[in-house]
């Protein structure tokens, strides 16, 4: 079966190039990816997938399915970008690999059993629709989730922190002795002291202050935004409760009113799954991607983290080029090069081979689910 998918992928290489080129050149803001999502929808419909558009109430989200039996293997697509900067994160790579994989698998799924699901996930750069989809139960009947992410290194295993984005609005009367800026400084300093009583992996990051930072220019309102990072969301929410106590004390001490809210969707810790990762590592090497780095944990949140608490997930970073820095104009060039196309072909074959392994040997899925349950049971 793996040889059949490899042969089919080689015959549709021009189509795969076209997919990557279209997505790479179609720059659309988060939740406004109308052209990209419709392009993928029509492509999947042409290949006999049943497609639900406007999925979960999001205009540019979709769910495509082929087959009705278990196990259900899901592939994720992302397609938003920065219109003024280009594909600096290479999301075109992610979607092209997923689509190429399912197109190859669609030719054998009736023979090997199981079913394929493709989920179009808009808005990744603005919090990510995966978080909402996870809450809505989209992944509850999925057995494994597969996707790849381009980067400037290749690593299979790696976790990411839970991230809770916070917004605090501070205000006071014009006649007040203290300004919201002084209240903000007091709150941030207090948070830093508070975090020392938690684990070493807890921190605040991405602090942004909207208001006058000049003490000689008095303003009676100010908004501060930041993210709490921790080993899990339970701890992050506990820290948020403590921050509310700090704000309340600040109000009584400095006479500064406050309102505290979530500024965006929260990301949970990403659980990497050793069972799936070992399988993918083997298949990547079989397909020519040999140099894999050791476990690499990341200091930023991932929307897939929420999904990884529901279903075993694969999300490796794949190096487009060691000397092209992720998130730069050089990376844009790398994500449309001929070597990138070859890498897409190899990744698609490795991902489809991994799906075949999971369908043909369901004990692997059970092993992955047991591992996930053990991770969730940790204190």
From TrEMBL:
Organism expressing this protein natively: Clostridium grantii DSM 8605
Name this protein carries in UniProt: Peptidase M20 domain-containing protein 2
Cellular component, GO annotation: cytoplasm
Alphabetical keyword list: Carboxypeptidase, Hydrolase, Protease
UniProt-listed InterPro entries: Peptidase_M20/M20A_hydrolases, Xaa-Arg_dipeptidase
Protein family membership: Belongs to the peptidase M20A family.
Keyword Hydrolase belongs to the record: yes
GO molecular function, one term: dipeptidase activity
One record GO biological process: folic acid catabolic process
Keyword Hydrolase part of the UniProt annotation: yes
């Amino acid at each position: 079966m793996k040889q059949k998918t490899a042969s089919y992928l080689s015959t549709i290489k021009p189509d795969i190039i076209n997919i990557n080129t279209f997505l790479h050149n179609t720059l659309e803001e988060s939740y406004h990816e109308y052209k990209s999502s419709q392009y993928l929808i029509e492509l999947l419909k042409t290949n006999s997938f049943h497609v639900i558009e406007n999925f979960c109430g999001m205009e540019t989200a979709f769910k495509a399915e082929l087959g009705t039996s278990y196990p259900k293997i899901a592939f994720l697509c992302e397609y938003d970008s920065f219109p003024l900067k280009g594909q600096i994160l290479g999301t075109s790579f992610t979607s092209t690999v997923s689509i190429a994989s399912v197109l190859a698998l669609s030719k054998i799924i009736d023979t090997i059993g199981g079913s394929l699901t493709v989920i179009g996930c808009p808005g990744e750069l603005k919090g990510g629709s995966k978080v909402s989809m996870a809450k809505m139960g989209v992944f509850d009947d999925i057995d494994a989730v597969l996707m790849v992410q381009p980067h400037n290194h290749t690593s299979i295993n790696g976790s990411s922190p839970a991230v809770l984005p916070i917004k605090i609005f501070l205000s006071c009367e014009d006649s007040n002795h203290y300004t919201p800026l002084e209240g903000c400084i007091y709150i941030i300093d207090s948070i830093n002291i508070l975090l020392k009583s938690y684990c070493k992996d807890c921190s605040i990051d991405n602090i942004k202050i909207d208001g006058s930072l000049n003490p000689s220019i008095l303003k009676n309102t100010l908004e501060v935004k930041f993210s709490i990072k921790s080993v899990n969301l339970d701890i992050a929410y506990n820290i948020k409760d403590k921050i509310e106590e700090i704000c309340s004390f600040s109000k009584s001490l400095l006479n500064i009113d406050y309102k505290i809210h979530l500024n965006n969707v929260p990301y949970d810790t990403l659980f990497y799954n050793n069972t799936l990762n070992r399988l993918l590592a083997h298949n990547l090497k079989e397909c020519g991607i040999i140099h894999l780095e050791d476990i690499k944990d990341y200091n930023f949140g991932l929307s897939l983290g929420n999904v990884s608490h529901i279903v075993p997930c694969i999300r490796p970073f794949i190096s487009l080029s060691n000397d092209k820095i992720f998130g730069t104009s050089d990376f844009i060039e790398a994500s449309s090069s001929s070597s990138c196309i070859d890498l897409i072909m190899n990744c698609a074959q490795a991902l489809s081979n991994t799906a075949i392994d999971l369908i043909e040997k369901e004990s692997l899925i059970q092993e992955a689910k047991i591992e996930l349950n053990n991770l969730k049971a940790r204190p």
